[in-house]
Amino acid sequence: MSSVPPVGPALRRLAARTAAQAAAWQPRLGQAVRTRVEPPRTLAEPRHALQGAAAWADRERAVVAAGGTVVLLAGALLVAAPGSASAQTIVPTTPGSSAFTARQAAVPVPGLIQVARPSPYRLPDGDEPAQAYVAMATNLLPVEPPAVPAPPPAPEPAPEPEPAPPPEWSAPVPGAPTSNPYGVANSEYAAGYHTGVDFAIDPGTAVLAVGNATVVSAGWDGAYGREIVLRLADGRFAQYAHLSSVSVRRGAQVSAAEEIGRSGSTGHSTGPHLHFEIRTSNRYGAVINPIAYLSAHGVTGL
């Protein structure tokens, strides 16, 4: 800044007042000059009086012009002076930071907005400073990432299928071929015909209970060799003959498809096979077609 002392407030007020007075008096001086320059003339007025008035008017105009020049020069001096009101930097008289005097701060982190803190300046009449109401605009707040929706819960595993209910009926030897069907006439049989059905199977093949039943007998029975007789749930009887072994006892409860013995060729037999009958009562000859009976109960693979 320049070392020339600033013009004081008194000089500034004097210059302003002088300019105002000159501007106010200029119309009046002009009117007076016109009055003196062009007074009403009479025929009797001497000519040398008119010439004196014109000279006086010229002097007045020169005075006015000089006054205006002084005013313009004073104004130029005020504008060019380093300490004048138009050239000097405004310095706060109250301690505190200012937008004109504070040093430039470092560049803030991208995405952050700096807002001026409330200053110690006070407004007239004790009003609160406007900076006390500074707030962050909502559109300038840091953008929060959108909330990531929680993943949907994993589907519950499908329940395991319930175990199949136990069969109520079964073939005596599932899938075994038939070697001698039921009802074939034969005089060698006491009934005159074949009272059961023969299944061709190897010795030692497991034989199964055809339904839920109670063991009526299990052991040797003459021409039938080793045999087992079951009383079924519907009151019918199932006979297994020519077995090589039995695995149940009289009075035992058995379930459908449960193993009760092994096939063989005991008794009156020409080779390994299973002789199977369905009886309406537990005696010889009281028989029905075993294949038809089991098929009526849903048994397949006969």
TrEMBL record:
Domain annotation M23ase beta-sheet core: ranges: 193-283
Residue ranges of the region described as Disordered: 145-179
InterPro entries on file: Cell_wall_metabolism_enzyme, Dup_hybrid_motif, M23ase_b-sheet_dom
SUPFAM superfamilies: Duplicated hybrid motif (SSF51261)
Regions of compositional bias (Pro residues) in chain numbering: 145-169
A Pfam family assignment: Peptidase_M23
GO molecular function: metalloendopeptidase activity
Descriptive protein name: M23 family metallopeptidase
Protein's organism: Streptomyces kaniharaensis
